[in-house]
Amino acid sequence: MKISTSRLLRRSNKNTDNGTIKSNFLGILLLTYILLRCTTGWIKGLQNGDMRNLSLFVSSSGATVTTSKIQDEVAKSDSHFYSWSSQKLSLLQLSRESAQNHQQHHNCTWPFVLIDDRILLQQDQNNANKEEPEQFAAWSYEDNKRRIPRMVHLAWIHDDPHHGPNKGRCLHHLQAVAVQQWKKQFPNYSIFYHDDYSVAKMMQQEFWPEFPELAKVLQCAKMRNAMLIDIWRQLVLYRFGGLYVDLDEIPTEQFTEDLIPHHVDFFSFSDNFNRPSQWCFATSPGHPATYHSLLTIFKRLLEMPEISQPKLVGMTGPEALKKGYAYAFSSEDRYKEGMHYGNFNTTGIKYTRKKAAVCLINKRKDPFPYNATHNWTVAEQYKADSGAVHWKNALSKLVDRGSCQQHLYELERRSSRFPGREWIQREQGQR
After folding, report:
1. Which of 28, 274, 381, 391 could disulfide-pair with 368, CB 3.0 to 4.6 Å?
2. Looking at the keywords, is Nucleotide-binding present (predicted)?
């Protein structure tokens, strides 16, 4: 068969055109794939914070956009996944809100006095141009040399209608002496006093994704002062870290900030039963001991057989901290004095109480010098002024009955979310 030259040329050109189209198409696909990978990597870099060290970006329109604004936009786009992150409270913000709330709603009258926080910032050449939170973090952690930040947390819930205006940041003057002594003994530590407003703000905010059952178990904590403070002290150290101390404790001259080494992430004394001291202990933020202590508290509260008779020592008190401490430090000698190395790369130090004893205001038997009417001791005068009641004596005031599970179900049954609410209302109406 004969094929003309022109026909062969046409067939050859057609094959060449098809090859060119195929090669161009493959090139476009390859270029598109490279652009997609680059764009995806760039977006993931922004989301993971890989570009935090860059001070600014330049958009296609020529406008200057700061890194924080770009990160804010990324955070907004992921708000349905990470909505809790934008609700986290800053310790500085919490301190200011507490002070503003006191100015608006409270005033202090004797024997109560106003307590202010002491916030220390790192204002050297390296941090002179940084924002206040960064200066605070630089001082608290001493430029990443410390694992436990240099801050002391003190708290008191009044929860007493007889005090009238003496709430907010008002403390009994004997407690104020304790605060001043902590400031003196710990000159390089920020001192935070958490009042009713500050404690409630932390407990009620929905920014605890690690503990979704928090709001539920609080419904079973009927002994408001003691049980709330037990839970709160674990939360505040889990979130911010630092040293927690009961407000009726006054440090002796032996107890100074030098007792807390920079390389440890857990610090405590031993109580009378050789447990970690719940009245005075310190941790780094997010410590496994506080995490597991909280999980233990939640479990025991939910399993409480009678909410009018809570066993505070075992449920929310020192036994819960002992359980969390045992998770973090599993060695057999963990309750002895000295250094301990535990799970999750934790390092703790534990002292006996004799190493640095503290004075208890509510156990002082010396005569109160300013009371000519009653021949009272300091402890008796403090109790009369503050209205402080030991948790064992407050048990008789609890009115709710039943287990925690029954109580929670009854609360849910009365709410508008309960599926059978309309049926129950209809049945009750027919009766």
Report:
1. 381
2. no
What is the value of pTM for the model shown? 0.74
Domain range enclosing 175 = 86-406
Tell whether 174 is covered by a domain: yes
Per-residue 3-state assignment (H helix, E strand, C coil) for 132-182: HHHHHHHHHCCCCCCCCCCEEEEECCCCCHHHCCCCCCEEEHHHHHHHHHH
The residue whose two tokens read 């030259």 is 5
Q: Tell whether 65 is covered by a domain.
A: no
Smallest CA-to-CA distance from 353 within 229, 233, 249 is with 249
CA distance 298 to 13: 79
Q: Reply yes or no on whether the pLDDT at 58 is more than 60.
A: no
Per the structure, how many domains does the chain have? 1
Strand-pair partners of 269: 351
- pLDDT confidence bin for 88, thresholds 50/70/90: confident
Strand partners, 66: 56
Rounded CA gap, 7 and 77, in Å? Answer: 61
CB 111 within 8 Å of CB 172: yes
Predicted local confidence at residue 23, as pLDDT: 61
CB contact set of 178 (below 8 Å; sequence gap of 6+): 247, 248, 249, 250, 361
The answer to the question of residue 119 being in a domain is yes
Q: Give the CATH number of the domain where residue 305 resides.
A: 3.90.550
pLDDT at position 370 is 65
Query: How far is Cα 284 from Cα 264, in angstroms, rounded to an integer?
Result: 8
